[in-house]
Design brief:
Belongs to the FAH family. This protein has 331 residues and is an alpha+beta fold. It is 18% helix and 29% strand. β14 and β15 form a beta hairpin. α1 crosses α2 and α1 crosses α4.
């Protein structure tokens, strides 16, 4: 099952992107219509749908980690749409700019660093031992943006690097996971573009908080996809283009530390809440972008994003470049 966010002036609306071509089906509205079709009065069905289906993915997973009610609505809506019985007023138009980040505003966003080889020409690690230890950083939820939003290039930076990554969405509150149980905590997956201003991080004594936290520096989507639709998250192609040039062409099989190991390590310290996102690192090919560039990325089974890079004039202009304008090492 896939879930998307449709931005409206009534707020963000949780929607099904795969029921009607070219339309987004509002989950709460479809549930109310389902209840009405099964005998409920419309004036009773609407408040019940609002009560039983939360408006954001984190709230939804908190109340229903298995998404049982939403799955039932999806099944009914698919059948009703096929029979021509799904009312048009249960749907929204699907203009790209109306898509928001499908994960809403998670409590915690964690980004893994150095979890892929920087250079495929490097020799394999001896005895299969990963050459880099587990490490990462917290990313500001306010950095999140939709899959077709513009990437706002901060005026104070001259070295901005986007990195396409597999994002893991947590379904159950978790602490102290082990490798054997970790995947049970996973609700599904998203494509996650982790963006950083490397020169700003270097100004901050190599701390990544500010450099990774600018507005629009976490592009997500277009959909949240439940884990049953992704049989093997460690066998997904990751591709990223800049101005039509393929920059990243990797696979999640290249991870040094797989998802269970990452979650086990992270929950030794952090409690992960429903809807939290763990972005699992990026394959080789990360490189600098500039205002005017056009970006596109895709991960197998998770859809694609397209973003224009535009200059964000807010804040002071700082010449902080410390390295050559060549491909950067992935974080």
């Amino acid at each position: 099952m896939k879930l998307a966010i449709r931005r409206t002036y009534l707020g963000d609306r949780l929607s099904f992107p795969d029921v009607i071509d070219g339309r987004l089906v509002d989950v709460q509205a479809a549930y109310a219509r389902m209840l009405e079709a099964r005998g409920s009065h419309r004036e009773d069905a609407i408040p019940r749908s609002r009560r039983e289906i939360a408006e954001t993915l984190p709230e939804l997973l908190q109340t229903d980690p298995d998404l049982a009610v939403v799955r039932a609505v999806h099944e009914w809506a698919s059948a009703a749409a096929g029979a021509g019985d799904l009312a048009e007023d249960c749907t929204w138009s699907a203009e790209p700019e109306r898509y928001g980040p499908p994960v809403g505003r998670p409590h915690t966003i964690w980004g893994m660093t150095s979890n892929y080889p920087r250079d495929r020409q490097a020799p394999p690690p001896e005895n299969g031992t990963p050459r880099r230890r587990l490490q990462g950083f917290l990313k500001a939820p306010g950095a999140l943006a939709g899959p077709y939003d513009s990437l706002r290039y901060p005026a104070m930076s001259e070295r901005v690097d986007p990195e396409l990554e597999l994002g893991v969405v947590i379904g159950r509150r978790s602490r102290g996971l082990d490798r054997e149980t970790a995947m049970a905590a996973v609700a599904g997956y998203v494509a996650f573009v982790d963006i950083g201003a490397r020169d700003v991080a270097e100004l901050d004594n190599h701390r990544m908080d500010r450099g990774k936290g600018f507005d629009t520096f976490g592009i997500v989507g277009p959909w949240f996809v439940t884990k049953d639709e992704i049989p093997d998250p460690h066998a997904l192609g990751i591709r990223f283009w800049v101005n039509g040039e393929l920059r990243q062409d990797g696979n999640t099989s290249e991870m040094f530390h797989d998802i269970p190991e990452q979650l086990s390590w992270l929950t030794e310290a952090l409690t992960l809440a429903p809807g939290d996102v763990v972005s699992t690192g990026t394959p080789p090919g990360v490189s600098r972008v500039h205002p005017g560039d056009e970006l596109r990325g895709e991960i197998d089974g998770l859809g694609f994003h397209e973003n224009a890079v535009v200059l964000d004039p807010s804040g002071p202009r700082v010449a902080a470049t410390t390295g050559p304008a060549t491909n950067g090492a992935a974080t």
